Amino acid sequence: DRADKEGWPTFMEKEIHEQPAAIAATLAGRCDADGRLALDEVRIPEAILRGADKVVVVACGTAFYAGLVARYAIEHWCRIPVEVELASEFRYRDPVVTEKTLVVAISQSGETMDTIMAIRHAREQGAKVVAIVNTPGSTISRESDAVLLTHAGPEIAVASTKAFTAQITATYILGLYLAQIRGNKFSDEIQDYMDKLALVPDKVQRILDRAESVRQVARTMTGATSVIYLGRHVGYPVALEGALKLKELCYIHAEGFAAGELKHGPIALIDEGQPVIVVVPTPRRPELHRKVLSNIQEVRTRGARTIVVAEEGDSSVDAYSEVVFRIPPAPTLYLPLLDVVPLQLFACELAGAMGHDVDQPRNLAKSVTVE
Ligand code: G6P
User: Fold this and answer.
1) Three-class HEC string of 245-270
2) How far apart are the C-alpha atoms of 234 and 232, rounded to whole Å?
3) Does any ligand 1 atom lie closer than 6 A to the CB of residue 240?
4) Residues 6+ apart with CB under 8 A from 351
């Protein structure tokens, strides 16, 4: 067993540290000699991809949050509306799905029953389904029109980590491919986006190299009974995922909020010592950065313990933060791949410090094969 973990104390730690390789493997071999994206697996006729009038992402759990991240990228690049829906809700609300709808099902296992039922419903309405799965030959991959594999390798820990970052990477590839086919972007722009994505694995590694600072803070939080996560723009789904990791692993009540919603309720929760983890946008997007900085000030004034994820060199956060986890600069749309890493490390370390089984949290299954 220890051998399978290759020296890591838990599968989760091993898998967190495999993320640079998982992202790189998911990116590998996607371009032809001219630098054009060539997704041979996506065997949906180009005319259909060009004619699609809407993308609907269906997924559960962490994969759903990967879908929320994907919306920002696909809408920005392709100018096509993207809906992201919990697979368990999708078919029950009589969704508007036609033969012009492109459904993207995201699933690590490819066996999540709600996601299977969602794609069956979508195909009955004539929609085409692209599956982003980590398990070749799985039910979802077999029942979809096309498959884009994440190459994260087997994920053993129940709480998903490397599958999540590989899923996000795959949605970026799909988004850029759609932009290429639909003529939204020139090939040199696509190549530039792909080149910058190829730099992400090294940046993730840089964060992992500094993991000890995250671990130290996590070990001081064993008494926490509630943790609030805030994020804006692509940082919002990261906040949701950070909170999910804490619930799953530490059994601590945690909730992610869109930072802009703070004043609409969550701020009432803040009192002395309340831990608040804030994902700060890059200062190169001042319109976003300024607002989140003021959110940190607002909770800090009310006595919150503020733990902040911010870009290297962004000293504006220092005065209002108990700790700052530093992230290398990257294009805004790619930041979730970096921002989530300290939050994974944090939950993993805190769970260990609380004496919980990190790989097999209570009551949870790796793959939920019932509705
Ligand atoms: C379970 C797992 C999660 C996973 C979710 C979706 O809840 O514990 O880690 O995100 O199922 O699973 P899937 O295999 O469809 O990605």
Assistant:
1) HHHHHHCCEEEEEEHHHHHHCHHHHC
2) 6
3) no
4) 249, 250, 358, 361
Q: Where do the H-state alpha helices sit in 255-317? A: 286-301
Order of all β-strands in the sheet with 101-107: 82-86, 54-59, 101-107, 128-133, 146-149
Tell me the pLDDT tens digit for each residue of 102-111: 999 999 999 9
Separation between Cα atoms, residue 41 and residue 370, nearest integer Å: 29
| CA-to-CA separations, 271 to 228, 260, 303, in angstroms, rounded | 12, 19, 6
Provide the residue type at 28 as one letter.
Answer: A
The pTM score is 0.96
Separation CA 122–CA 15 (nearest Å): 33
Which three-class secondary structure state does DSSP give residue 271? coil
Q: Which atom of ligand 1 is nearest to the CA of 365?
A: 8
**Taking a C-beta distance cutoff of 8 angstroms, is the pair 195, 37 a contact?**
no
Report yes or no: 254 and 241 within 8 Å, Cβ to Cβ: no
CB of 369 closer than 6 A to ligand 1? Answer: no
ipTM value, please give it.
0.90
